[in-house]
Write a structure and sequence with these properties.
By secondary structure, the protein is an alpha/beta fold. It has a 7-stranded mixed β-sheet. Strands 1-2 form a two-stranded antiparallel sheet. Strands 3-4 form a two-stranded antiparallel ribbon. A hairpin with a 5-residue loop joins strand 3 and strand 4. The structure holds S-adenosyl-L-homocysteine. The site of S-adenosyl-L-homocysteine (SAH) has 24 residues, from strand 4, helix 4 and strand 6.
Length: 227
């Protein structure tokens, strides 16, 4: 997919060099070493210039396997976490995917690069404004970015094949299960200080199957919109 091209923004020059590509290859080999095997996930991470999603001054950090601060006291998730959550979603081309917690837009770009139809919700107005301009500026015109409270999902665009929550929830919001198609998957980290990575399959209108994939730490999944 040729979604990426070099372009200029007011505060940022976006150039993807061989050095950056080399750092991505290195990052992908670390992710493989940590057990990520989904070739489509690894391909998307290889293709997307993650340093575009951080300020220029921090671009070295884009290819380290660590979370990093962005606007509004939020973080861009650690590459391993992005790779792990995306692998759990088992993304297929044309899957309709709802992401909750747009943040920098990187996770949404990974899903889009894999051929999913992506809807993403952010509650912080400032982040929503920045990312709504940024993603189309690097070629991701198809991603629908919504301002809202992810606890409510998106009635308007439901049902979804997959839903991915990228903030730490204290419980599984019923609306998200409602908005899944039968057979659909919800990947959501649930817990107070530490979260269990849960994958919930909607088996029928009344039944779900829940699998637990271990401990992670996320910024909190908060209610309402922050103006
Ligand atoms: N997926 C992001 C990671 C963002 S961190 C990325 O790739 O960069 C989690 C994000 O979830 C934050 O931006 C936070 O503001 C957002 N968030 C927290 N609670 C939310 C809610 N109820 N609805 C929508 N977004 C929420």
């Amino acid at each position: 997919m040729s979604a990426i091209h070099s372009t200029k923004r007011k505060r940022k020059t976006l150039i993807d060099t061989y050095r950056h590509k080399g750092m991505r290859v290195q990052l992908v080999s670390e992710l493989k070493g940590r057990g990520i095997t989904d070739v489509n996930v690894l391909k998307a991470i290889t293709e997307i210039p993650r340093h575009f999603f951080l300020d220029n001054a921090f671009e070295e950090w884009a290819y380290k396997d660590v979370p990093f601060p962005i606007e509004s006291d939020q973080t861009i998730s650690q590459p391993f976490t992005v790779a792990f959550q995306t692998s759990l979603l088992n993304v297929k081309v044309n899957d309709k995917v709802l992401e909750i917690g747009t943040g920098s837009g990187y996770q949404a770009a990974v899903l889009s690069q894999m051929g999913a139809k992506v809807y993403t919700i952010e509650r912080q107005v400032k982040l929503f404004n920045i990312t709504s301009k940024f993603l189309p500026s690097i070629g991701y015109n198809q991603i629908r970015i919504l301002l809202g409270d992810g606890y409510l999902g998106s009635e308007r665009f439901a049902p979804f094949d997959k839903i991915l929550v990228t903030a730490g929830a204290t419980y599984v919001p019923d609306a998200l299960i409602q908005q899944l198609r039968i057979g659909g998957l919800l990947v959501i980290p649930v817990g107070d200080k530490v979260q269990k990575m849960l994958r919930i399959t909607k088996v029928s209108e009344t039944e779900v199957k829940t699998e637990n994939f271990g401990d992670f730490r996320f910024v909190p999944f908060l209610k309402g919109i922050n103006p």
